[in-house]
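Sorry, any thoughts here?
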Amino acid sequence: MKITDARVIVCSPGRNFVTLKITTEDGIYGLGDATLNGRELAVVSYLRDHVVPLLIGRDARRIEDLWQYLYKGAYWRRGPVTMTAIGAVDVALWDILGKAANMPVYRLLGGASREGVLVYGHANGTTIDETTDAVADYIRLGYRAVRAQSGVPGLTTTYGVGRGTMYYEPAQKGMPEEATWSTERYLTAVPPLFARLRETFGPDLHLLHDAHHRLTPIEAARLGKDLEPHRLFWLEDVVPAELQESFRLIRQHTTTPLAVGEVFGSIHDCELLIREHLIDYIRATVVHAGGLTHLRKIANLAEIHHVRTGCHGATDLSPVCMAAALHFDLSVHNFGIQEYMRHTDETDRVFPHHYRFEDGLMHPGEAPGLGVDIDEILAAKYPYERAYLPTNRKEDGTVHSW
């Protein structure tokens, strides 16, 4: 089953997506998501100029071998551009293998470990009242878990508070927006939000919150301790995780479950966190962590250390990646939860798919392969538009983690 063609497709049906389409001599093709938010064209070049020429003529069934070839053969290992490109190739090959076997990918990964995949939605508002109303909306839709973010008094913008409903897209066309940040204001504002949510919705609803890498370890420990009475499902990305050892201090001071990893590219980024039991959920995702092949290795390491998965699933991951994540989630034993941000109608039309949402759970469907396709004619009507994620500055002007 030799690879005869590989093409990179760039489109922007509401936001930018990069898709790799690999075709074999049998006429079977597979899709892989290669979207890297705000740096999409870097991955496009990496694939077109450096990876695609290496794929032609190779056996599409040798997935592990091709993964190692692209990872070790380049000498320059890891990094978000490299791992996103490798992830796109890997997922496309799994898609091809599933179609060739006439089976959904999750069956190739060992079959279903559960009947459906627990997902959480994003509720937000500029005030606690608005966020409470948004949580209620998600409950009415059948969600069993909700991430809650609210505006911070005194700040004009706050991470997680979107401009629309049902999905949050932070990337904006043109030059990056500069937001103003105050950790002190934030730490004061968050505990009352969750006090209200618990009082309103009771103990059974799973509540999550994202600090988005903005705190120091001791600030994160304080927030986790303040939130303990409200029993969060998890507190996400409290500090930049390049210094994995920093989680030791946080862990000493709070029992609030910790999640991290959406910017991780490999098992080396989370090995210490997992081995020392410093986190409860690993959030590495299919596209940025080298595809299904490598993400399964991360999950296997996590399982023996009682760490569960919680894959990133924002709108900057196309339906191709969402489908791949759901196949992974359904099959892996130590699954925890899946982030699910709904795409725009334009995106769903460009990427028709078989995955579905019912009663707080999702399923990837039974179609062979990933169960997602791309309408290339429609995609061509949405050309790439440069867009950036925001940047962040403290009130005194110092650049801060966004």
About this structure: The chain has a mean pLDDT of 96. The two ends are 45 Å apart (CA to CA).
